[in-house]
Automatic annotation (TrEMBL):
Residues 330-884 form the TonB-dependent receptor-like beta-barrel domain. Belongs to the TonB-dependent receptor family. One of its GO terms (molecular function) is siderophore uptake transmembrane transporter activity. Pfam families: CarbopepD_reg_2 (PF13715), Plug (PF07715), TonB_dep_Rec_b-barrel (PF00593). One of its GO terms (cellular component) is cell outer membrane. This is TonB-dependent receptor. Residues 121-234 form the TonB-dependent receptor plug domain. It comes from Allotamlana fucoidanivorans. Transmembrane segments: none annotated. Gene3D superfamilies: Carboxypeptidase-like, regulatory domain, TonB-dependent receptor, beta-barrel domain, TonB-dependent receptor, plug domain. The keyword Membrane applies. Keywords: Cell outer membrane, Ion transport, Iron, Iron transport, Membrane, Receptor, Signal, TonB box, Transmembrane, Transmembrane beta strand, Transport.
Length: 937
């Protein structure tokens, strides 16, 4: 070979080999206690590459160009670790020995801030639930899961929906029918729903399952500047990210609840790569649940499907995601009790299995809006609430260079919630004229016959001729009504449609000592809402039966007080037909200032512009002769409420500024202290217009509530012990309070005039975990607090619409209702080889049942346990038992046991004057157990 050819050949080999010589491979393993960890996410910066470990704990990055890099491991439940590496034509073998992060203080948190940061370095009080935490909870709805979050008060006694969640005494407007008033329920950083009003809360449209990877919870604090109109806290359910290895899980579950009522469920999630940096996730669940309490119908059925498709590139990612929810569930009402000091179930009911829900039947009730067209609404209480949510969105994150980053998340959703259920289940004596006049008949006096609506046989025949003069009703045959009463309940029909658009844009610039974020949140909702209430004649017994009722006086036509199903006073108890548009525009700015390596200052400002526009029908009883069907003898359709043609309009703006300042000081690598001051605001929700101003102009806008919070906290995280504690002080001002009442002289349901009050809560919340051995962990978290109603007035309408006899009571200085002075969870977890187990004790302290402090809900304890076993590499099983000892605690209080009564009416004077009166409480749900069988691949 001549010299020229040899030189040319050498140069070709040299230059074509340069890429090989200037590249390297990075291999490694992730272990804990010398055991491989699967599905650990490994990031390589600044290449923005990621992968995850296989079942042997191994990962690899191939053909990485020479340079300096940072490689980081992320795995929920373990500390985030980073290593600085150099690639210089070499191959690296790395080992990540991951250390358990006992309460996720060294885990990256994205909720409640505009940039990702370690929990330990944040100036917020934040908790996180991992997949292990989530799988250890009996699957009974969103609120039930959040009971495991430190310092959060949760009332999930009604079931999956109609729940209450709040923190730090910021609770006064979080009523049973709107229990998420101050907090934001989110999926991947955006609210589940923009709007709330009675019987329409975000928990209607949220179900968690295997598609949820992590839950992050913010208590107050920075929620004032990072959440839309929700200064009380954020509960963010985060989905799985891009999986670089195809993996999935299928989980089948079966269990029993209460009186051996079965539940069946299947969950699944699959995720992995497609091609060219495209990744997917898909999953969801379906369940069939007969309910924790006894009812004559299936309590819950349905499920959801979620998916996302992600494209990653060197400067960010682009994601398309969606959800379809189609779900039926119901909610439990109260149970009768006696003995104010030691409540015990009354009238043959019990605190564990009684539901007092109407049985299933099919009725077609005239729609008052379209009476002339003959429109009807199908009503069957077995449906409960049918919630549908079709949502789709686009999320992107882009590194623009020069330390500029832009993030945007857009979502559209179409929602529908259709309620067909019963509200109230009060005792109405046959000696009470209400039992007959509530039918809507003009003068239902004489011989009243009650028949079983399903089978047609006569149950009782009563002569009520003397009741107007104070004489008791007389039975005319041997038949008797259970407890000599009917149940005061309403066939409650509610239909809500909403189209919603949300978008959050964040632009971020990073300097050496500053991370400056600015952005804009946009939210728009177009809502239509209709509610109609009829009376239902029902037996007052643990398993109610519908009653067909007639007035059968001798020599007179038979008057039908109810239809064949037992439904009476069609659409005569309540009517609301409204349209509303909501727009929320919120620009915000935040600066995280690194003063030095130990001190970070966090300053944020948010301007909220909220506009409510809409209309509300005026209404009056139908004046058609003989009612809807023209027959005066069918009294049940003679009093339906119909629109008059007049409308009351509202068009109000709410503008306010919220701000928050926090500081975090690192005492050591494992310990930090933080402080934060926040001034947040809460604009009224739509219930302000829907529930008030009955047939009168909506002549003023609602008050903006102001929430001021100060907190000082300590965070400490080591291998065997982690703890965080926060001292807090919060005030809530301009609390609008109104009561739902019933005038038995006019058969009218109404809300009392709104009064504005103030509350204050001081307390200590804590979260801790101790791991004395590699296989054992002890957890302890809770809150001690002093909740006060510092300025508080209640309106008493004296049971009539007429304002002349109304009274306003002053309860300033009393203990705030429904907030325990102490609440904690204590538990232990065992995990060794193939076996895992846990045991938890939940303690709920005594709470005041109302602001007059006339009745106290006793303290109670609940014990939960579980046992898991890994059968093979792919198969595992788990048993979960909730409320192991079947405790009978009381979660809620609805006041005296009479139709239209409210909890506020049970004043100390009322209780003293009525020591033998019955009242309505809502017990916690009974024991439930479930077996889960998992297949992973």
């Amino acid at each position: 070979m001549n010299y020229t050819k040899f030189s040319l050949f050498f140069l070709i080999i040299f230059f074509t080999s340069l890429p090989i010589f200037s590249q390297g491979n990075i291999k490694g393993t992730a272990t804990s206690n010398n055991k491989p960890l699967e599905n650990v996410t490994i990031y390589l910066h600044p290449k923005n590459l990621s992968t995850s470990t296989n079942s042997y704990g191994e990962f690899i990055f191939s053909d990485i160009p020479d340079g300096s890099y940072t490689i980081t491991s992320y795995y929920l439940g373990f500390e985030t670790q980073s290593q600085n590496i150099e690639i210089r034509n070499n191959n690296l073998n790395l080992v990540f020995e991951l250390v358990p992060d006992l309460i996720n203080l060294k885990t990256v948190i994205i909720t409640g801030s505009f940039d990702s940061r370690l929990n330990l370095q944040s100036s917020t009080s934040v908790s996180a639930l991992t997949p292990k935490d989530i799988q250890g909870v009996f699957p009974r709805g969103t609120a039930n899961l959040l009971q495991d979050v430190s310092g959060v008060f949760v009332d999930a006694s009604a079931g999956e929906v109609f729940t209450r969640v709040y923190t730090r005494g910021v609770s006064a407007s979080a009523e049973d029918d709107m229990g998420w008033y101050y907090v934001s329920l989110q999926e991947d950083g955006l609210p589940v729903s923009l709007a709330q009003h009675s019987y329409y809360s975000p928990d209607l449209f949220h179900r968690y399952d295997l598609t949820t990877k992590k839950v992050e919870a913010i208590r107050g604090g920075s929620a004032a500047i990072t959440a839309a109109n929700a200064p009380g806290g954020i509960f963010n359910f985060l989905s799985h990210g891009a999986n670089h290895n195809l993996k999935g899980i299928v989980q089948t579950s079966a269990g029993i609840q209460g009186d051996s009522n079965p539940i069946y469920r299947i969950d699944t999630h699959i995720g992995g790569p497609l091609s060219n940096n495209w990744f997917f996730n898909i999953g969801g669940h379906y369940r069939h649940d007969e309910g924790a309490r006894n009812s004559e119908f299936t309590f819950s059925k349905g499920g959801q499907l979620k998916f996302d498709l992600t494209k990653t590139h060197k400067n960010g990612y682009f994601k398309i995601y969606g959800k379809t929810l189609n779900d039926y569930t119901n909610r439990y009402t109260g149970v009768a009790a006696k003995n104010w000091n030691q409540p015990a179930a009354a009238f043959g009911q019990d605190f564990k299995n009684t539901s007092l829900l109407m049985p299933s039947f099919n009725a077609y009730i005239p729609d008052g809006r379209y009476l002339q067209q003959g429109a009807t609404n199908r009503f069957n209480p077995a449906q409960g609430v049918h919630a549908k949510d079709l949502a789709a969105g686009i999320e992107l994150s882009q590194n623009l260079g020069r330390h500029w980053t832009v993030k945007n998340n857009f979502k559209y959703s179409s929602k529908n919630a259709n309620w067909q259920t019963s509200i109230s289940n009060a005792f109405v004596s046959i000696n009470n004229p209400l039992a007959y006049f509530i039918s809507g008949a003009n003068f239902p006096i004489g011989q009243v016959v009650f028949r079983d609506a399903e089978h047609g046989h006569e149950v009782a025949r009563i002569d009520n001729s003397g009741i107007l003069s104070g004489q008791p009703a007389q039975y005319l045959t041997d038949g008797r009504l259970p407890n000599d009463a009917v149940m005061g309940t309403s066939a409650w029909y509610k239909d809500v449609d909403a189209d919603e658009f949300m978008n959050q844009l964040i632009i971020q610039k990073q300097w050496e000592n500053h991370t400056f974020s600015s952005g804009l949140f946009l939210g728009f909702s177009d809502m239509k809402h209709f509610t109609q209430g009829s009376f239902g004649y029902t037996t007052y017994q643990p398993t109610p039966k519908m009653l067909r009722v007639t007035l059968e006086n001798p020599s007179q036509p038979i008057i039908e007080l109810s239809d064949a199903n037992g439904v009476s006073n069609y659409g005569g108890l309540f009517y609301a037909n409204t349209n509303a548009n909501i727009s929320q525009i919120a620009p915000f700015i935040n600066d995280r200032f690194k003063i030095n390596n130990k001190i970070y200052l966090d300053l944020g400002l948010r301007f909220e512009h909220i506009k409510h526009t809409g209309s509300k029908d005026r209404y009056a009883p139908n004046t058609l002769n003989g009612g809807v069907d023209g027959n005066p003898n069918t009294a049940y359709d003679n009093g339906i409420l119909v629109p008059t043609g007049e409308k009351d309009f509202f068009n109000y703006l709410y503008n306010y500024v919220s701000y928050s300042a926090g500081i975090n000081y690192s005492l050591t690598e494992n310990t930090s202290v933080f402080g934060r001051f926040s001034s947040g605001n809460k604009a009224p929700e739509l219930n302000y217009y829907f529930n008030n101003f009955s047939n009168v102009p909506i002549n003023k806008k609602g008050e903006i509530q102001n929430i001021i919070q100060t907190e000082i906290g300590l965070k400490h995280a080591t291998k065997n012990f982690s703890a965080s504690g926060t001292l807090f002080w919060s005030t809530l001002k301009n609390i609008g309070v109104t009561n739902f009442e019933f005038d038995d002289s006019t058969n009218e349901v109404f809300y009392t005039p709104i009064l504005f009050n103030t509350s204050r809560t001081i307390g200590l919340e804590w979260e801790s975990s101790y791991k004395p051995f590699s296989f054992l962990r002890v957890l302890f978290h809770g809150v001690i607090q002093d909740p006060k109603a510092t300025k508080w007035h209640e309106y008493d309408a004296n049971g009539t619409v007429d304002p002349d006899d109304d009274i306003i009571y002053d309860y300033s200085g009393n203990t705030l209702a429904f907030n325990p002075k102490i609440m904690f969870h204590l538990g232990a977890e065992y995990d060794e080889n193939k076996t895992s187990a846990f045991f938890k004790w939940q303690f709920m302290g005594q709470r005041e049942g109302n602001v007059s402090n006339g009745f106290q809900l006793p303290s109670y304890s609940v014990f939960n346990t579980g046992l898991g076993y890994k059968i093979t590499k792919s198969w595992s099983a788990q048993v979960i038992i909730n409320n192991l000892f079947n405790s009978a605690g009381l979660a809620n209080f609805f006041g005296a046991n009479s139709f239209g009564a409210s909890g506020s009416g049970a004043t100390p004077e009322f209780v003293q004057a009525n020591p033998d009166a019955s009242f309505v409480v809502v017990p916690i749900l009974p024991r439930s157990s479930m077996l889960k069988l998992n297949y992973t691949f």
